[in-house]
Amino acid sequence: MSARNRRLPRHRAWPLTSTDINECLGPHMTRVTDLRFLTGHDSGTVVLGAAWVAPNRRNYGRGIHPESVGFRIDVHPVDAADRAATRAVLREQALPQLHEWVTQAIAADETWQLTDHQHCWRLVDGRLTHRDEA
Description:
Blueprint: E1 12-13, H1 18-25, E2 32-37, E3 46-53, E4 70-75, E5 78-79, H2 83-107, H3 110-113, E6 117-124, E7 127-133
Parallel strand pairs: 2-4
Antiparallel strand pairs: 1-5, 3-4, 3-6, 6-7
């Protein structure tokens, strides 16, 4: 996101760019329906999130628009002073893991694909962890 379109306080920054995500996912980027650079409250230790939005939600007849089905990726802001270090860790570790998660999701069976899923990457003291979220 360009600095002139910036909606973050000066002490916050996004550790990744849309180019980073595009390079990571390559042709799978066509399956991403929403790439968001979050501006809200502090996300704590979460630095990157990915979600699969399923086509059939079982919520009393209210469906989901077909254009919303696919992957949503959220880039969470970090302290500006930590941006470079966080970016290096995300590019080295999280982006290959994101690519693998998306690839596995595309190849998953119908049961998996008919359910919403979330996956989060957290950075604590320079150590990156990731897991599926409920």
